[in-house]
Design a protein that fits this description.
Elements: H1 2-6, H2 27-40, E1 54-58, H3 63-74, E2 81-83, H4 89-101, E3 107-111, H5 112-123, E4 131-134
Parallel strand pairs: 1-3, 1-4, 2-3
Helix pairs in contact: 2-3, 4-5
Length: 135
């Protein structure tokens, strides 16, 4: 369902979906699986992954939890994450530039406040985000 929605294969005028359910039913795991699938699979002849950069936005208190979920479900080193939690402005800006300009990291995990404050820094780079997950 999620893959079909994100890929635009469902019969509605948009791309994406909303998961809304009780806590503990696996929304995070489903999101991790979707992200991994988008990073590792291709539907094109040249074999390029559907997504190269993913941004996960969540409350500040959950940034490290999301980073831990990727390791828990995919194993250490399966994906390269950059979790921005509690750093000074200069470090945050440097890390955002690193994410947007290089291929070092595949997944940026940041708070809503961080994204709101620095969205201009990210959007000045072409293709800085292929998939946005909001928790």
């Amino acid at each position: 369902f999620m893959y079909d929605c994100v890929m635009g294969l469902k019969d509605f005028g948009g791309n994406g979906c909303i998961l809304a359910d009780d806590m503990g039913l696996g929304k995070t795991l489903q999101s991790v699986c979707l992200i991994y699938t988008m990073l590792k699979t291709s539907i094109t002849a040249n074999g390029e992954a559907r997504a190269k950069r993913v941004i996960v936005v969540c409350p500040c208190s959950l940034v490290k939890n999301w980073e831990n979920e990727f390791v828990k479900w995919l194993g250490p080193g399966a994906v390269r994450t950059l979790a921005l939690a509690e750093s000074d402005r200069k470090t945050t800006e440097s890390n955002l530039d690193s994410f947007a300009k290089t291929k070092i990291f595949q997944i940026l995990i940041c708070s809503y406040e961080c994204l709101r404050t620095h969205v201009g820094r990210l959007t000045k780079y072409k293709d800085c985000c292929d998939l946005l997950v909001c928790d």
